[in-house]
Amino acid sequence: MVESVEIIFRTFISFILLWIFVQLLGKQTIAQRTYHLYIASITMGTIAGNLAFNIKVKFLYFIISISIMGSIVFLLNLVAIRNHRFRKWIAGEPATLIQKGKILEESMERMGYSIDSLKQALRGKDIFNIDEVECAILEVNGSLSVLKKPQYQNTTKQDLNLLPKAETAPVELIYDGKILYENLTKHACDEEWLMAELKKRNLAVKDISYAVVGTKGNLYIDPFQDQLD
Fold first, then answer.
1. What pLDDT does 59 receive?
2. pLDDT of 104-125, one tens digit each?
3. Residue 101 contacts residue 131 (beta carbons within 8 Å)
4. Gyration radius (Cα) of the chain, Å
5. How far are the Cα atoms of 25, 32, 49, 76, 142 from residue 35, in angstroms, in the given order?
């Protein structure tokens, strides 16, 4: 019974420590984007797992071990962010596998990447013919980024001159019968314009529950008393 209680306690503590570890290093730990974070995830998981059920080893030893590993990874992460010189050694760097439509065999061999693996990754990008690829880069997290040759790229609205007019974020102007002056100063329209728009609709500020300028510049007004047929 005592051992069962200890295992429950250890499991709870191991979860808390892993939670703190992920919070300190950020969401990139979950994605395991770099070499050191990938290694850290495996190691920290192993330590936490042993902490949960291996009651033969003292609890303090696990705390010391997971704290040291967390500190090492945190420092490596800090160095990788601030120092470009050491970043490629700590976090790794992308490798170009296809350049100007040509497969770079030396780069493929250095990365341990076979033609079959390359074709499989390309099929994951809906590319079944290698000759469609202009450039392919193997990212640090193992994903493949692909740039198609111009003749195989999808047509965009910009190519057809069909780009819509620029849109802006909605701006709330009136809420619960009060003008939001702070938002009004951020918008191109001033208080005089707002009052003129209300006058057109035979409305006063106190009559309005909510008023907002939409993404396309249109004014939407919701009065307290809606006139419904």
1. 79
2. 888 888 888 888 888 899 999 8
3. yes
4. 29
5. 14, 8, 21, 11, 10
